[in-house]
Design goal:
The chain is mainly alpha-helical. The protein contains 4 helices and no strands. It has one domain. It is elongated.
Length: 84
């Protein structure tokens, strides 16, 4: 896995024509941003923060997607319990 990751980083830095260190910095930033959004949405879905706060912190599109995904999961669980 380490070799694969190193090859992917090398290939991406060549394609994007940027230094490997800059590519890694971008990857870390993207990863942290994604983790932050997931944490905000989880806090919203567990009613730790309001919808308004979640929208402010993660964006309306992400909040709507999380709401839709939660609804679908709950519908699937309900169906499974009724047809078990």
């Amino acid at each position: 896995m380490k070799d694969l990751l190193a090859r992917e980083i090398e290939e991406l830095s060549k394609i994007k024509k940027i230094e490997t260190a800059n590519l890694v910095a971008q990857a870390i930033k993207i990863g942290v941003t994604k983790l932050w959004q997931e944490m905000i949405l989880a806090r919203y879905l567990y009613k730790k923060i309001t919808r308004r706060e979640a929208i402010k912190l993660a964006g309306i599109d992400n909040v709507r997607l999380a709401e839709k995904q939660k609804k679908i999961v709950l519908e699937d669980v309900r169906w499974g319990l009724e047809h078990a």
